Amino acid sequence: MRRRAQKELPARLEELAAAHRLSFGAVAVRHQRTRWGSCSPAHAISLNLRLLFLEPELVDHVLIHELCHTRELNHSKRFWALMQIHDPDWKRHRRQIREAWRTLPRWLHAGNGGSEL
After folding, report:
1. Cβ of 39: how many Cβ atoms within 10 Å?
2. According to the model, what pLDDT value does residue 114 have?
3. How far is CA 8 from the centre of its chain?
4. Which of 11, 59, 64, 69 is the right S-S partner for 39, CB 3.0 to 4.6 Å?
5. What angle in degrees, to the nearest 10, is found between the helix axes of 77-86 and 56-69?
6. Nearest alpha-carbon partner for 8 in 40, 48, 42, 41
7. What's 2-106's CATH class?
8. pTM score, two decimals?
9. CA-to-CA separations, 58 to 90, 111, 117, in angstroms, rounded
10. Is the Cβ–Cβ distance between 37 and 117 less than 8 Å?
């Protein structure tokens, strides 16, 4: 599962970064317990291998969310304005991604996972 995620997720992140004219530093795939992804101040993006179990549009939402953090490393009004540009359905996707954590197969939960991005 990890090999598949390390192959698929960074490749899709590259595609979306190019399509949206956003850039990032490094990318890592991990089995995070509480987040779908994260972005560091150095623009290094970390992605949860559990993304493999989501619908493609929700995966794209998470990846775009993290790419937007390379411009705004917060959840300010400017950040959400960027999300509106790059993912016009971000509000619906955000609701769906929060629900998705609860619908993952039980064996994927390495502990008490949360639903944060």
Report:
1. 21
2. 44
3. 13
4. 69
5. 140
6. 48
7. alpha beta
8. 0.88
9. 9, 22, 11
10. yes
Domain boundaries, the chain: 2-106
The DSSP string of 51-108 is GGGS-HHHHHHHHHHHHHHTT-SS-SHHHHHHHHHH-TTHHHHHHHHHHHHHHS-GGG
Ramachandran quadrant class, 92 (left: phi over 0; alpha: psi -120 to 50; beta: rest): alpha
Per DSSP, 116 falls in state: B
32 Cβ neighbours under 8 A, 6+ residues apart:
38, 46, 48, 50
With H, G, I as helix, E, B as strand and everything else as coil, classify residue 4.
helix
- DSSP state letters, 9-66: HHHHHHHHHHHHT---S-EEEE--SSBSEEE-TT--EEEEGGGGGS-HHHHHHHHHHH
User: In the block, which residue shows the tokens 């411009």?
Assistant: 71
What residues pair up with 37 in beta bridges, in sequence order? Answer: 47
The sign of the CA dihedral 49, 55, 56, 62 is: negative
- Tell me the per-residue pLDDT of 88-117, one tens digit each, with 9 for 90 and over: 999 999 999 999 988 877 666 655 444 445
